[in-house]
Backbone:
């Protein structure tokens, strides 16, 4: 069954009840809502669409696409998501040439990729060092030392993310102070827009930190 966040291939023609020509929608997109047999979503180029369930085909995501899909769901669950949509509209999740067009989303995506890369490396290294495969006591000590070294790397990564959280918190605090001290509507709006970009980044960093702790456990 189609659900929000699914990746789909779209190919249908909209036939308005007017004398004007039909409009064709074709390409790949993401489902925003599925209701009463109708699919609401947006193509990868940002164009919104609405069609019947039979006009779309679910597609399997590869590893990176699945990771990006989960990442976008995380952003969409943020309390600041509606503010971001209000500010950037349908451009929020446009992904072209290997990156997101919105700087704040791209920053959060790069941090998430780095976290996943570290976790995958640790899992791969640790799988090679299972104690059940060790037949000699000397090798067992080597594996224990390696495990401790891997844990140290996890701790260092967690510390780096915490440092990023602290930096963003300081930026948010400074921005809030700037907004309070600003004179005039235009100046206050500028500070407010900056604040709208920082808060979702702060949330993603916090979720990244929590995710890293869960993986380590």
Residues:
């Amino acid at each position: 069954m189609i659900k929000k966040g699914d990746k789909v291939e779209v190919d249908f023609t909209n036939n308005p009840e007017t004398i004007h020509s039909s409009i064709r929608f074709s390409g790949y997109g993401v489902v925003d809502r599925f209701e009463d047999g109708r699919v609401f979503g947006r193509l990868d180029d940002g164009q919104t669409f609405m069609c019947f369930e039979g006009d779309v085909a679910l597609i399997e995501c590869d590893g990176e696409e699945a990771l990006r899909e989960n990442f976008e769901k995380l952003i969409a669950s943020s309390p600041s998501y509606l503010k971001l949509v209000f500010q950037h509209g349908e451009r929020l999740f446009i992904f072209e040439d290997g990156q997101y067009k919105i700087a704040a989303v791209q920053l959060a995506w790069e941090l998430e990729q780095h976290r996943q890369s570290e976790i995958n490396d640790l899992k791969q290294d640790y799988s090679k060092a299972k104690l059940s495969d060790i037949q000699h006591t000397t090798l067992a000590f080597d594996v224990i030392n390696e495990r401790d070294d891997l844990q140290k790397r996890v701790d260092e990564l967690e510390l780096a993310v915490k440092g990023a959280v602290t930096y963003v918190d300081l930026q948010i605090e400074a921005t809030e102070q700037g907004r309070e001290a600003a004179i005039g509507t235009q100046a206050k709006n500028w500070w407010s827009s900056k604040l709208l970009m920082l808060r979702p980044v702060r949330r993603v960093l916090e979720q990244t930190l929590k995710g890293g702790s869960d993986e380590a456990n």
Observations:
- Residues 8 and 59 are 5 Å apart (CA to CA).
- Residues 137-181 form the longest helix (45 residues).
- The helical segments are 63-76, 81-88, 103-127, 137-181, 185-216.
